[in-house]
Design a protein that fits this description.
The chain is built from four helices and nine strands. The protein has 183 residues and is an alpha/beta fold. The structure holds inosinic acid (IMP) and magnesium ion.
Length: 183
């Protein structure tokens, strides 16, 4: 994909799958879900850069329990279809999570491998509790057993862009989620 101008850019947007309004309504429910889990207790909301940055910002404003935020950046190395592999932490949290109720805000669960490893890594640090909320879920693509506590949208096996998700680093800034035109 070569983007030299606005026409190239717009060609990549095949069709809108989830509108801004639909995202807003789902965020409200997700905020209520997180509130209901913790009943007023403070949490640490963790997002995995870069894809989840928009989702985390909007979700955090629908949560009413006391909320700290943290960021991690990970790189995954997996070979073929094997479910083994490693997740390298490129940027780690800046605090010990053992005194925190942790909620991971993820952009999308695809094969599930990255999130599964990340959950393993965080569990080893003994948080008070650990939950996962994902914006999007593509269950057809799963190769390891990984389920979020809440998925805002379950989508078919399409490559999607927008609302934080990219194709070659573009389209993250779209306010909606669209199917990417790969041809
Ligand atoms: P996996 O679940 O380990 O396969 O990796 C999921 C990661 O791949 C997500 O966090 C995204 O960064 C990226 N990804 C998977 N599917 C898509 C998509 O449709 N659009 C954009 N990024 C995607
Ligand atoms: Mg991600």
């Amino acid at each position: 994909m070569q983007i030299n101008n606005i026409d190239d850019y717009q060609k990549g947007i095949k069709k809108v799958l989830i509108t801004e309004q639909e995202i807003k309504a789902a965020l409200k429910k997700a905020g209520e879900f997180v509130d209901s889990l913790y009943d007023g207790r403070p949490i640490l909301l963790v997002s995995v850069l870069k894809g989840a940055y928009v989702f985390m910002a909007d979700l955090s404003r629908e949560i009413t329990v006391p909320c700290e935020i943290g960021f991690m950046c990970v790189k995954s190395y997996f070979e073929g279809t094997s479910s083994s592999g490693t997740v390298n932490i490129v940027m780690d949290l800046d605090r010990d999570v053992s005194n925190y109720h942790v909620v991971i805000a993820e952009d999308i669960i695809d094969t599930g491998r990255t999130l599964k490893k990340l959950v393993e890594i965080l569990r080893q640090r003994n948080p008070l509790s650990l939950h996962v909320v994902t914006l999007l879920d593509k269950p057809d693509r799963r190769v390891v057993d990984m389920k979020a506590d809440m998925s805002l949208f379950v989508i078919p096996d399409h490559f999607v862009i927008g609302y934080g998700l990219d194709a070659a680093e573009y389209y993250r800034t779209l306010p909606y989620i669209a199917q990417f035109c790969e041809d």
